[in-house]
Amino acid sequence: MKRRVACAPLDYITGQGREIDTDYIMSNNFAFGGINTSLIFRRFKT
């Protein structure tokens, strides 16, 4: 199979999670009937 130049390589995470250093995270949730939600959380700095 030929790789298209316009496509970026995907970074699959399988098995265990990966630790990252970030201040924001996003979670997408998709459901039947068009009930879709995106939540964005920011780290609370003290």
* Overall SS class: mainly beta
Element pattern in H and E: EE
Proportion of residues in β-strands: 25-35%
Oligomeric composition of the shown chains: single chain
Which runs of at least 5 residues are low in confidence (pLDDT < 50)? none
Average of pLDDT? 86
Main β-sheet, spatial strand arrangement:
1-2
Radius of gyration from the alpha-carbon trace, in angstroms: 16 Å
SSE layout and pairing:
Elements: E1 24-30, E2 36-42
Antiparallel strand pairs: 1-2
How would you describe this structure to a colleague?
The chain has strands at 24-30, 36-42. The chain is mainly β and 46 residues long. Strands 1-2 form a two-stranded antiparallel ribbon. It is extended. The N and C termini lie far apart (51 Å). The mean pLDDT is 86.
Main features:
two-stranded antiparallel ribbon, mainly beta, 2 strands, single chain, 46 residues
Q: What would a concise description of this structure say?
A:
The chain is an all-beta fold. The protein contains no helices and 2 strands. A two-stranded antiparallel ribbon has the order 1-2.
